[in-house]
Design a protein that fits this description.
The complex is a heterodimer of chains A (about 180) and B (about 160). Chain A is of the alpha/beta class and about 180 residues long. Chain A contains 5 helices and 7 strands; from the N terminus they run H-E-E-E-H-E-H-E-H-E-E-H. Chain A is about 40% helix and about 20% strand. In chain A, a hairpin with a 5-residue loop joins strand 1 and strand 2. Chain A starts with a helix and ends with a helix. Chain B is mostly helical and about 160 residues long. Among the domains of chain B are: about 60 residues, Cytochrome C biogenesis protein (Helicase, Ruva Protein, domain 3); about 30 residues. The longest helix of chain B is centred in the C-terminal third of the chain and has 27 residues. Chain B is rod-shaped, with a radius of gyration of 36 Å. The chains are: A alpha/beta (about 180), B mainly alpha (about 160). Chains A and B meet through loops of A and helix 3 of B.
Chain lengths: ~180, ~160
Amino acid sequence: MTARLKTGGQVIALACIAGLLALLVWSVVHQQKAPSVGSMAPAFTLQRLEGPGKVSLASYRGKPVVLNFWASWCDPCKSEAAVLERDWTTYRGRGVVFLGVDYHDVNSDGRRFVSAHALTFPMLEDGSGSVTSRYGISQVPETYVLNRQGRVVAHLRGPITDPGFATDFQNAIAKAAA
Amino acid sequence: MLRLAAVMAAALVFAAPAAASCAHPRASMNFLQGQVMCPTCHTTLAMSDAPAAQRIRVFIAKKIDACWTTQQIEAALVANYGQGILAAPSHKGFDLLAWWLPILGVLAGAIVLAFGVWRWSRRKEPGEPDKPDEPADSGLDEETERRLDDLLARFD
C-alpha cells in the first residue's frame, strides 16, 4: 500500500515536471517572430477603425500593399502620417493599397488621430494587438511592404521619414508593384 | 463689486460640473491602475510610464470624471483592448481555472503534508518494542487461544 502510494506520488511529480517543461517548450516555439522578407505575410481580418465592417488582407491579393502599424500615443507616428498620406495619394493611382493598423490604442483616440492628420487610406483597429503580435511588432511605427502575392518585400522598423528609410520605402513599393 | 460678483458667478458655472457628485462612489484611479495592464510593456498601469499606459490613464480619468463605475470602465477597456488588458483573469469559463488551480494546489499540498506527518508520527524506531497497549498477534486461531487461556488458568 505504502509502496503504491509512493510510486503514485512520484508519477504525479514527474507528470507535473513534464507538463511544465512542455509549457516552456510550447511558449518558446510559439514566440511571435516578424515575417521575414520573402515569406507570406500573416493573413488577418480586422475591424475598420472609422466605421462598421471588417477588412481582410486576403481581399487585396493581386495588389501591392503598404501595411503601416501606428498608434495615437506614438510621437514618431505623427511626423510620419503626413508623408504616408502624400505617398498614398501618389501611389493609389498605380494600384498600390495603403492600410493603417492602429494598435493598442483607445479607438476614439485613433479616430481623432486620423481626423487630425487628414488620413484618407483605410484604417483598421487592433486594440488587443493579436494581429500586430503576429507581425512581430515591437514598437510603432513599423511598416511592411507586400507584393501582389502577399509576400513581404520590406519591413521598416521605424518611421518611413527616417533618412535611411525614405529611399528603402520608395524602392520597396517599386519592387512590390513590379 | 459688480466685477467680484461676475467672477464668483463664473467660478460657480465652471466649478459646478467638476464638483458634480455621482449617484454612486467614484471609481478609484489608484485601484484601476493596479487592475489594468499596460498593453505594450505588460506591467500594470501603476508600474508603467509608457505612452500607451499614459493614454489609458487619461481615458480612465475621463471616465471617472463622467461617473463611470469600475465595472463600466473595465468593460470599455476590454471591448477596446481585449481581455488581456485586465491584470486578473475573469471569474467565468476557462479563466476560472486560474483562480481554482492555486487553491486546489494548496489543498493537495496540505493533504500530502498531513499524510506525511501522520506516517512519520507512526513510524517505529529500529529496535523499539511494540506499544504495551497493543496486544501482540500470537498467530493462533480463537479456539486454540481460548483453550490455551483455560490451561493457563489452572496454574493460577
